[in-house]
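Reply to dn_fold:

You asked what the input looked like. This is it:
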Amino acid sequence: MAGASRGIDALLEAAGIDPAGGVQLVAASRAASVPIDPAMPLVLLRGSAEDAPSLPGRHARVGSLVVLAALYPPSHRLERLPEREPMALDTLDADALLASDWLVPALDPIDNLGSPHGIAAISARLRAPDGCPWDRRQTHLTLRPYLLEEAYETVDAIENGSPADLAEELGDLLLQVILHAQFAAEAGAFDLTDVYRSIAGKIVRRHPHVFGDVEVAGVEGVMANWETIKADERAERGKADDGAFGGPARALPALPGSREIQERASALGWDWDSIDGVWDKVAEELDELRAAGTEHERLHEIGDVLFALVNLARWMKLDPEEALRTANHRWVDRYRRVEALAAERGIDLDALSLAEKDVLWDEVKAT
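and this is what came back:
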């Protein structure tokens, strides 16, 4: 052990690194399985591919190169130790990586683009006194519309975009999280580590059937246990008075909020025995809507109809938000095709009667 320490000391001295300033030491064969922060200098230790217990042979070598290529620019210059012979990352092959010790110099924050540490440093720079005036002016409240916008654009990328589109939108959404954490850090309220700790602890705590010794019966058992744990958490935080439905009723938009309320109700045992009861409820609410006489009654009854339809979608394992969003997109797409068809035939769409417009609509719908 003392000999290994002396060897490491010699490597650090050859690399010109003071360990008091922070340094990462990783076996080259294990670089694919160890978290690396490119903002700190990295020393890769020579070894064999067999040193990597979970990655056999060539996969260990190639995997390490793939990780380095994802974290550092292709032209980033490594230095072979102890000679400090420079070599660009994109010219390094897998065997050379394992055959020598290497110094991987730290990246500047603005170049640290492939690491979660980089975007945090960039957001702090934007908020610095000499940073971006627009970013310096933002608050938790002013960013609310952007958070919603990025969330919906992410959903659209999931449904209609390419993998590259989804990666981009997830990045935009992540930036909102980073910025809110930055605002809080500046105020001394919390920082990004608290965000990480909160969600990681919550996931572990709410999955005792994975991280503990609790046994559950299928998905239904998982959901019931999840709601029980959440209720205990609310009580510990002094929020038991909100009840099981305080959060979604207050925070979510109406349609996903309705679905969340009904899923929670089902997990607590408040549900129909079969979908037949749900169909009957939808019919009952439609009849009451037809019979409503005042504006107030109609508003009340149409809310009940929508609530019952959300429940019907839940029983059918369908997302009502997705269903309505798809219907919106389908209608707009058909209208655009009607416009195109009218233009192709030299028809003034605005001059047509509703019945004549319906003819074009039905023609487009049929195709």
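Confidence is low (pLDDT under 50) at residues 1-5, 52-61.
Hope that clears it up.
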